[in-house]
Amino acid sequence: MKKGEKFKRLVEIMDILRSDEGCPWDKAQDEKSITNYFLEEVYEAVEALEKEEVSSVAEELGDVLMEIVFLARIFEEKGEFNIGEVLEGINQKMVRRHPHVFGSKQVKDAGEVSSEWEKQKREEKERGSLLEGISKSSPALFTAFKMGALVSSYGFDWKQVSEVLNKAQEEMDEMEKAIPTQNREQISQEIGDMLFSLVQLSRHLNINPELALRQTNQKFIRRFQYIEKKLKEKGKSLAESNLEEMDRIWEESKNKIS
Questions:
Q1: Claim to verify: residue 24 and residue 59 sit in the same structural domain
Q2: Is 229 in contact with 210 (CB distance < 8 Å)?
Q3: Model-level pTM?
Q4: Sign, CA torsion 84/87/91/92
Q5: Cβ distance 196 to 219 under 8 Å?
Q6: 237 and 177 within one domain
Q7: Rg (Cα) of the chain, in Å, rounded?
Q8: Which of 34, 67, 95 lies at the terminal end of a domain, its last residue?
């Protein structure tokens, strides 16, 4: 079965599931409920990509695609648009946003391609501000990363990594000075400034801070579970242990778990 036929089959399956003779659960869903599942599937796809599990990536991409078809079907029932219009829209956008491939425009490098993409996006959306189109539902780390990248394309940025590192240290110093004041609003502001500067440092080092933090979270889980395992081997629970013992096992886990 060809790719187009397989996609058509997925659309047909969704049509059946949402029909009067279909599945009660699928028929009960709306765009709000499916949004939750859509986000869940996207995060699972990201996790599979991080683990470099090819078979899992294929499966999770299928799940994401299914949620897209599901949402398109819901809006089709409302008379808004259908999956065909979704596909046609993105086809036209990809051709329009790549004039250096499908047209005669010349570009120097990937950086210029990115700048041209953002320029066209602003013109198409008729946005008054460069930062207007950033999704309010995006994770905060990613939003900070995106904002830095956008303003950087117009030269509003540090030129050297060392300058960003100095800024991050400056923000750390200000946070340390704010802590003794016990002013929660001021401390919160300084922590936000520090995090923002660290995100920009990540950007200058070509590292996505959202993914970097996700990796650290997973590493923490693996190492803390190592503590739990070692305590269990001793017939002890977390409540029966103490900080000194847990710290010792934690240091041990660093040599075994990356």
A1: yes
A2: no
A3: 0.63
A4: positive
A5: no
A6: no
A7: 24
A8: 95
Q: How far is CA 28 from CA 20, 23, 25, 83, in A?
A: 11, 9, 5, 20
CA–CA separation, 30 vs 18, rounded Å? 11
Confidence at 126, pLDDT banded by 50, 70, 90: low
Output the six-digit token pair for 153.
């394309």
**Residue range(s) defining the domain that contains residue 239:** 211-254
The enclosing domain of 148 has a CATH number of 1.10.287.1080
Q: Which of 120, 203, 218 is nearest to 156 (CA)?
A: 203
Q: Which of 64, 95, 126 finishes a domain?
A: 95
How many structural domains compose the chain?
A: 3
Q: What is the pLDDT of residues 62-85, one digit of tens each?
A: 999 999 999 999 999 999 999 999
Q: In this predicted structure, what is the pLDDT of residue 130? A: 77
Convert the pLDDT of each residue in 188-230 to its tens digit: 999 999 999 999 999 999 998 988 898 899 899 999 999 999 9
Question: Do the Cβ atoms of 150 and 132 come closer than 8 Å?
Answer: no
Side-chain-facing half-sphere of 149: CA atoms under 13 Å: 21
Helix/strand number for the chain, H first, E second? 12, 0
192 with 233, same domain: the answer is no
The rounded percent of the chain whose pLDDT value lies above 70 is 97
